[in-house]
């Protein structure tokens, strides 16, 4: 503090105090990821949210091969190549009391006439190597497959007892999501043996995500990674209701919800184009058409390699990242540009294929109300831009809380007094900062500054009313170039 004005003894004082000289300069909204998913049925854990920074800790807490562990393998891999600097909180869900486990099997008939080898993939997780000797009976071969599956801790399934020519497989948790786990034997072969699969099925009754959403209070979780299936209408509606409430003026903490998907155009748009889905601006798909990977793993990789990291460091940018380390679908199931265009218009994200990788092509929300063209909340990156505008306005207005409020032109020596013109200055600086420099979140700062209004309320002297109109910046999504050519003819 400064030397008292009553001091008369000789003294030289220097006071050091922090002052924010950049108030009005745009800040980037710090991203936070909330993972809502299930642990293993056989694991015991509290359902309170916990922040983790290591994959192993998640596995130890909720069980190896659980939804939460499989997501952590992408977000927090042991090689350190996952999310860096973005907090991740896990919101675990117990199985529903009425939950039913999904099951499938691998079948085998015959006797090997030569040595064989290969792998099986369960939900995209590769088994240990399988070596089958000559003259191996079907039951013995299935036993070798069982051992290879059991050797991989992160497998999302439990292998059963071989019998009647099949190896039973059951999901490590209960619910519909277990039906989304693929069984792939395409890389296993052995002369004399015929392998078959029965797809995972019979899983039923997911837990309610509202149990996790109840923990969302003052913490601004900007992105929720949803481990339920994208066609779980009950979960989607719960997310929508909660997200809409968090757009409210007194809450100011909206979120978006990422859910993985591998289904084709007709299947996924039947969900996103439903009457209820059309109004859901928070929900969106991270797509990898035809992939054998688990949807929640696809969603996690899409966040770690592009969406969350870009939103955190350059929120004006749209998403073009590849799903690194994950198997993409076959070439013949990938969608044409016309199909992708139709999917977008029906609220379904799309992917392209670059070599052996799926690449995010169009990341859009379910939102597309009938008659609204273009839909205001179509692009997820636009919602991230809006969140950044809300965040910055909140930062500025919070600094004014409780200060004396005076009409413009009122003489005062109080350094804390606020007049509407002072707020106009702060918001004008913010508009310029959001539009220029490294932000590029809005376009036409001049429009914002010309049309913004700040006024003391006509019936409440303790209230200041602000209008801050913005035009969001666009993104280069379509490039159309005409090439004209001719020939040179000599004289």
Walkthrough of the structure:
There is one protein chain. The protein has 491 residues and is an alpha+beta fold. Helices cover 26% and strands 20% of the residues. The protein has 11 helices and 22 strands. Strands 2-3-1-14-15-16 form a 6-stranded mixed β-sheet. A 4-stranded antiparallel β-sheet has the order 9-10-4-13. A hairpin with a 6-residue loop joins strand 9 (157-159) and strand 10. Helix 1 packs antiparallel against helix 2 (67-75) and helix 2 (67-75) runs parallel beside helix 7. The longest helix has 20 residues, at 380-399. It is elongated. The relative contact order is 0.11. The mean pLDDT is 94.
Task: Tag the structure with descriptive keywords.
elongated, 20% strand, 6-stranded mixed β-sheet, alpha+beta
The level of helicity is: 25-40%
Query: Whole-number average pLDDT?
Result: 94
The profile of the biggest β sheet is:
6 strands, mixed
- List the total number of helices: 11
């Amino acid at each position: 503090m400064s030397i008292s004005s009553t001091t008369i003894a000789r003294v030289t004082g220097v006071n050091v105090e922090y002052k924010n000289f950049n108030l009005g300069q745009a800040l980037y909204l710090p991203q936070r990821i909330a993972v809502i998913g299930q642990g293993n049925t056989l694991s015991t854990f509290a359902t309170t949210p916990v922040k983790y920074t290591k994959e192993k800790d998640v596995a130890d807490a909720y069980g190896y091969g659980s939804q939460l562990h499989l997501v952590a393998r992408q977000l927090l891999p042991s090689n350190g190549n996952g999310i860096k600097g973005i907090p991740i909180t896990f919101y675990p869900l117990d199985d529903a009391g009425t939950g039913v486990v999904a099951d499938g099997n691998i079948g085998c008939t015959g006797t090997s006439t030569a040595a064989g080898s290969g792998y099986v993939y369960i939900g995209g997780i590769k088994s240990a190597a399988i070596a089958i000797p000559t003259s191996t009976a079907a039951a013995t071969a299935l036993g070798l497959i069982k051992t290879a599956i059991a050797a991989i801790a992160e497998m999302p399934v439990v292998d059963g007892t071989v019998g009647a020519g099949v190896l039973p497989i059951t999901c490590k948790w209960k619910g519909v999501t277990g039906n989304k786990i693929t069984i792939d034997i395409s890389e296993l072969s052995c002369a004399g043996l015929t392998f078959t699969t029965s797809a995972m099925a019979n899983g039923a009754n997911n837990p309610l995500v509202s149990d996790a959403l109840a923990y969302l209070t003052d913490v601004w979780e900007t992105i929720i990674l949803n481990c339920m299936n994208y066609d779980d209408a009950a979960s989607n509606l719960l997310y929508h209701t909660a997200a809409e409430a968090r757009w409210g003026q007194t809450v100011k903490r909206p979120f978006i919800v990422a859910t993985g998907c591998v289904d084709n155009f007709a299947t996924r748009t039947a969900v996103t184009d439903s009457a209820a889905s059309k109004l859901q601006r928070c929900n969106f798909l991270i797509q990898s058409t035809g992939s054998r990977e688990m949807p929640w793993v696809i969603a996690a990789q899409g966040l770690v390699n592009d969406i969350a990291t870009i939103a955190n460091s350059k929120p004006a940018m749209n998403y073009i990242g590849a799903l690194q380390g994950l198997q993409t679908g076959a070439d013949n199931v990938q969608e044409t540009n016309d199909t992708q265009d139709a999917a977008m218009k029906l609220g379904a994200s799309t992917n392209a294929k670059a070599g052996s990788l799926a690449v995010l092509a169009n990341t859009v929300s379910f939102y597309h109300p009938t008659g609204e063209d273009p839909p205001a909340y179509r692009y997820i990156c636009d919602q991230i831009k809006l969140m950044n505008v809300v965040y910055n306005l909140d930062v500025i207005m919070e600094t004014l809380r409780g200060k004396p409020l005076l009409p413009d032109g009122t003489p005062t020596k109080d350094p804390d007094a606020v007049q509407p013109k002072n707020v106009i200055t702060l918001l004008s600086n913010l508009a310029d900062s959001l539009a220029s420099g490294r932000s590029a979140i809005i376009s036409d700062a001049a429009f914002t500054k010309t049309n913004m209004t700040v006024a003391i309320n006509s019936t409440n002297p303790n209230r200041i009313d602000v209008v801050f109109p913005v035009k969001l910046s666009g993104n280069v999504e379509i490039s159309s170039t005409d090439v004209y050519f001719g020939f040179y003819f000599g004289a």
